[in-house]
Design a protein that fits this description.
Blueprint lengths: L27 H13 L5 E3 L9 E4 L9 E12 L2 E6 L7 E6 L2 E7 L5 E6 L2 H13 L10 H14 L1
Antiparallel strand pairs: 1-2, 2-3, 3-6, 4-5, 6-7
Length: about 160
């Protein structure tokens, strides 16, 4: 396994949209690297493939206290959403910056697990927020795009200072 470099704004590769994975067997090593990279961070609870420069549609999430229960989702899609929730978010691609973001309170996501089995997750807790955040990355969006232009500029300035 290898720790991959995490892209930070304003890297244009973060705007690329992920493509559906057709051969899950071929990306098993990459999935391991993505998990290892997430665990290598101090506080990362999720990571999308596009954050490390890949266009394979894969996200990994681990909300466990022990950080040893990764959830791997290949080709995830939000198929239902409802309600509204406002909460503070941060991002490994925007180090040192946090802001309040409005998200859906409840989501239903369909995906494949790392063995290629179809799964469905319906949640209205913190996982719902993390799923939306990571799936946004697969669509070429970072969370600050949900903010005003001024707040986006502040985030960019903080990242440049942090680098």
């Amino acid at each position: 396994m290898a720790v991959l470099d995490i892209l930070t704004i304003p890297d244009e590769r973060l705007k690329r949209k992920a493509q559906p994975v057709k051969d899950i067997e071929a990306i098993q090593g990459f999935i391991d690297d993505l998990i290892e990279t997430m665990y290598h961070t101090d506080d990362g609870i999720g990571l999308a493939s596009t954050q490390v420069g890949s266009t394979d549609a894969v996200i990994v999430i681990d909300l466990s206290e022990t950080r040893d229960q990764p959830l791997v989702l290949v080709n995830p899609e939000i198929v239902e959403k409802s309600g509204e929730y406002v909460g503070e978010e941060g991002c490994l691609s925007i180090p040192g910056y946090r802001a309040k973001v409005t998200r859906f309170e409840k989501v239903k996501v369909t995906a494949l697990d790392r063995q290629g089995k179809a799964i469905e997750i319906e949640t209205d807790d913190f996982l719902a927020i993390v799923l939306q955040h990571e799936i946004d990355h697969l669509h070429g969006k970072v969370f600050i795009e949900h903010l005003s232009t001024l707040k986006q500029q502040i985030a960019l300035k903080k990242v440049r200072k942090y680098a």
